[in-house]
User: Fold these one by one.
Assistant:
Number 1:
Amino acid sequence: MRLVPIECIKEGAFLGKTIYDNDGRILLRQGVILNNNYIDRIRQLGIFSLYINDEYSAVEIEDIIKPELRQKSIKILKDSFLHIQHFHKKNEEYFNSIFDIANGIIDELIGRKDLLVNLVDIKSIDNYTYQHSVNVAVLSLIIGIQLQLDKVELYKLSTGALLHDIGKVFIPKEIIQKKGKLLPNEYDLVKEHTIKGYNYLKNNIDISPVSRIIILQHHEKIDGTGYPDGKKGNDINKLARIVAIADVYDALTSDRPYRKAMSPNEAIEYILGSGQTHFDFEMVKAFAECIVPYPVGMLVRLSNNDVAVVEEIFPHFALRPIVKVIKSDNVSDVGKVINMMSELDLVIKGTEYSVD
């Protein structure tokens, strides 16, 4: 199973991961043979990448949380945010449901033997905010567990991460979903989502003050160049510093109306390069240990210009997987399995989506 931009998908590939519509209903099940009609329909939903199984990669990769929990969480957030957007009123039932999914995601992640993230979550344009919020909660908790936070802190982290973008319900939809680059005045409006979200919930005693601070501070940067208050270093709440990393990683690896998604390795390199300026470096290191830059099934180009498929990942050595050569100028090397832990003269140059 590998992630491929929709324009690179050919008829006859098998869908590797079930696709849901904007209401959480199954649109196409895993295993369906894709044809041009299906591909066009998916594109119309604002989905620009798909997981497929083909001749190069047919290994199923498990999501780090159950699909049922992910879809339930997305639906609860969507219903809650739309209620707030339309009525500007707090609904205790919705918030209780959000608290339940915050705990549910914690329980599921704590119960896992490993916390390596192999998948990038696929998002549609219309549901981006809700899907993004769930993924940011999952990624934040992975960092939190790696940093050995206790369960009380994990709950505050999970709740704050799920609600970190709640202020966007008060920003015009046409700006949030704009396909082109934002004008300066539009970007200033978007930046207000941190304050608007915090102010909306600041008197809600059922939500921890720390969770509310996450909403306010998740765009602050270690060097003081963030917003809304330009806070620096340890003046930024610890849990907000965690959510900042998860927020940027998930945004970078998501297709947006105005740009294509980065591959996991490109996004990790960006975040590592921004350690000690934008992000807390110790938290960045904890994050990088849990994210697989070249997941199983991905096509990669090696430093000798061969194209190979990733077959196995070594925890803590994700840059040196076992790969199988599928294209080479030396025909006798096609099909060769290489353990990059021992073949130290080879490195991965980047990702590929086609061998044509």
Number 2:
Amino acid sequence: MASPLDSVRELIESGPLAHLVTINADGSPQVTIVWIGIEDEEIVAGHLFRHRKVENVLRDPRVAVSLEATGTNSIGMRDYAVLYGQARITEGGAPELLQRLARIYVAPDATFPPMPDPQPGYVTRIRVERVTGQGPWAARA
């Protein structure tokens, strides 16, 4: 069975900044920019500290992630993808994930995080349930 990620895998692996939307305790949206990758058919993002986004996911796992692509449609509108799913937080592994993603987002020889002995942090893992947007993935959704 095909994964919803199949349609956007190439886009994610190209390294666009991702807008992660979580839900604050009062029901309002919280948006932050994150680096993302794919592990075990889940979107992953690393966080060195217990930021608001981590707290929000621990309380309410519903998330959305938007990505801007480089393509355009026939009338010149920029392609984008929006991924909806359920997230979970795992402890540890953030420095290793961020180092791997820095090679995509910063430079092939980047060292990240730029500190000695960073704390283990947290990893957000998102099981994508639905993909929408404008681009080739929309036609496959």
